[in-house]
Amino acid sequence: MAESNLSFILNKPLSLSFEERPKPTLKSPQDVLIAINYTGICGSDVHYWQHGAIGPFVVKDPMVLGHESAGTVVEVGPAVKTLKVGDRIAIEPGTPCRHCTPCLAGHYNLCDDMRFAATPPYDGTLAGFYTAPADFCYKLPEHVSLQEGALVEPLAVGVHIVKQAEIKPGASVVVMGAGPVGLLCCAVAKAFGASTIVAVDIQPARLEFAASFAATHTFMPERVSAEVNAARLLKESGLIGGADAIIDASGAEPSIQTSIHALRRGGVYVQGGMGKPDINFPIMALCTKEITAKGSFRYGSGDYKLAVELVATGKVDVKKLITGTVKFEDAEKAFQDVKAGKGIKVLIAGPNEK
Ligand SMILES: NC(=O)c1ccc[n+]([C@@H]2O[C@H](COP(=O)([O-])OP(=O)(O)OC[C@H]3O[C@@H](n4cnc5c(N)ncnc54)[C@H](O)[C@@H]3O)[C@@H](O)[C@H]2O)c1
Ligand SMILES: [Zn+2]
Ligand SMILES: [Zn+2]
């Protein structure tokens, strides 16, 4: 394997470049050094590229993009017992402090001092090499490809959201937004035993895909009130009295409002989508229906492990989501395609992948 640590860098909004950076070294005896094979492009990477910031996270210095990666272990620290050189792994891209109150309570995704790939100021994984603690690297079984390994990240997002939604066998669930995250929520809900899964989107092609992937029903909202959309959604999906759980994976205000109206009394609402920070919210319906509303942020204890398991056992076929793979040198073109809404999940190979 070549030794290039070519890195794909966001300098400032709308300014991308390639740079040969020094190969990283292990930061702790528990770390492994990974040659990156494949990386998926996430909406957040595109957002940083376009705007240079997401909420409080502002790109002030050049930053390597990418956080949805799978790679091959090329060096292990002296204290690593679980991995060896040559292992193919999915990389969990956030390293928590392991000492703060949320970390100690087992909710490390809520860590006060998280170092997350491609969330400023931390560099991401679109480079030749990346280091990570061995316990945040998940060995892929032989029959799972490295391309599938790159999809474990968004799948873990879906696992966390669906766990938050408390989906039980026989449950009905509505998923707002049929992008990668919403589609993977549908698939995880199916694996958890949901029997009615309604995918909602404003793009017909995405609904068509959702129906072929994991949804039992699809719904296209109209430009009418949230109450009217909710009533038609329930009628068309045969959900008398409302859905048990509704997940927003769109971030769109109308979806969020429709969700609350389409839930059954006592149902669970999960906010997975990140759109406008403030919206009008049907708080009276939340109150009188005794809805449980929760957030969902990245992934926590056991989510990555379960995501790998769902792929390995064939319960979630992430291969179907892969639109194509581009060479490392074509990363910017791939970013442009994702921005233009082309395909579902584009992977970038390399730069050491041949
Ligand atoms: N909570 C987390 O940890 C986490 C992690 C990753 C992504 N996200 C967020 O999840 C969301 C989905 O991510 P993605 O990668 O699938 O993005 P995406 O943009 O590909 O998908 C969003 C989908 O929502 C649809 N949509 C837009 N307006 C709608 C409306 N009014 N009604 C129904 N559907 C509508 C779009 O057509 C699109 O298909 C994004 O907001 C993203 O920021 C959250
Ligand atoms: Zn992502
Ligand atoms: Zn912590």
Q: What attributes does this structure have?
A:
11 helices; seven-stranded mixed β-sheet; 354 residues; binds zinc ion; binds nicotinamide-adenine-dinucleotide; Quinone Oxidoreductase, Chain A, domain 1; alpha/beta; six-stranded parallel β-sheet; Rossmann fold; 27% strand
Report the radius of gyration as a whole number of Å.
20 Å
Name given to the CATH architecture of the largest domain: Alpha-Beta Complex
Number of domains: 2
How many strands in all?
A: 20
Verbal overview:
- The structure is a single chain.
- With 354 residues, this protein is α/β, with parallel strands linked by helices.
- The protein has 2 domains: 6-139 and 317-349, Medium-chain alcohol dehydrogenases, catalytic domain (Quinone Oxidoreductase, Chain A, domain 1); 157-295, NAD(P)-binding Rossmann-like Domain (Rossmann fold).
- Helices cover 28% and strands 27% of the residues.
- It is built from 11 helices and 20 strands.
- Strands 3, 7, 8, 11, 12, 19 and 20 form a 7-stranded mixed β-sheet that branches. Strands 15-14-13-16-17-18 form a 6-stranded parallel β-sheet, sandwiched between helices. A 3-stranded antiparallel β-sheet has the order 2-1-6, with no helix packed on it.
- A hairpin with a 2-residue loop joins β4 (53-54) and β5.
- α4 (152-164) packs across α5, α4 (152-164) packs across α10 (303-312) and α7 (226-237) packs across α8.
- It starts with 5 loop residues before the first strand and ends in a 5-residue tail after the last strand.
- The model has no long low-confidence stretch (mean pLDDT 96).
- Nicotinamide-adenine-dinucleotide (NAD) binds next to α5 and α8.
